[in-house]
Amino acid sequence: MYLKTEGIVLREVQYKDNDKLLTVLTKDFGKITVKAVGVKSGRSRLKAGCQLLAFSELTMIERQGRLTLTEINVRELFSELLNDLELFSLASYFAQVCDAVAQEEDLNAPMLSLLLNCLYALAKLKKPQLMVKAVFELRLMCITGFLPDLGGCVVCGNVDADRFNITQGMLQCHDCSTGGEIRLPMSRATLEAMRYIAFCDARQLFSFQLTEGALLQLGGITESYLSTRLERGFSTLDFYKSLQI
Questions:
Q1: Is the C or the N end of the chain the one with fewer CB within 10 Å?
Q2: Roughly what angle, to the nearest 10 degrees, separates helices 109-123 and 129-143?
Q3: Can you list the alpha helix ranges (DSSP code H) found in the chain?
């Protein structure tokens, strides 16, 4: 049976001499594993679309529960990212996180849309890396079941709470505590940005502005929240951060 869908490559692994196993986040089937035969050969017509971050229309054949790529029509390679080590490492982090969060064959169109929007913002719109990273991290948590409580302090109800509880994903005031939590300071501008990212229309994700200081604060919160909720780190993030030194 032949299947057709759009998808972006999250991971590529060499298989045998000339083949690859691709992990692809797709529009119609969620995360899937596809075998690409002969793509290590320079003459392969499938080669261009079988690299990390390539967004393509894929045609596959399914035999005995396994998918093999038969045709690929590249839509976007994000060459601007491939040619810049810092941008590529950040984009690779996005892909690794999506690979970790997405479940096999569990349809998640918002995740695919978010990843594409963030790659486009880096490659085409030239948005600040800090902004795109923070948007990706927080919005991904929101669409995968970890929406933080941003209404107000969970203890006193103050809507202008100045601490974010990383452990429990909620707001608190400086003097309010529930015990045993990890809290990070947060300005009013940072709080408003978090509310915007969490609830805005997906087409307007990057239509906000923050000072560099507020972006740094926001990025610290979103990175800590994601790693705490997922209970793991990411090698691609470590490499990206090593380039900032």
A1: C
A2: 180
A3: 79-82, 85-101, 109-123, 129-143, 188-199, 212-230, 235-242
Burial 52-86 (b: 16+ CB within 10 A, else e): bbbbbebebeeeeeebebbebeeeebbeebbeeee
Share of the chain above pLDDT 70, in %: 100
Cα of first residue to Cα of last residue in the chain, in angstroms, is 50
Q: What is the pTM of this model?
A: 0.95
Domains detected in the chain: 2-76 (2.40.50.140), 84-242 (1.20.1440.120)
In the predicted model, is pLDDT for residue 40 greater than 90?
no
138 vs 15, which has greater pLDDT? 138
In whole angstroms, what separates CA 244 from the centre of its chain?
A: 20
Each residue's pLDDT tens digit, 29-38: 999 999 999 8
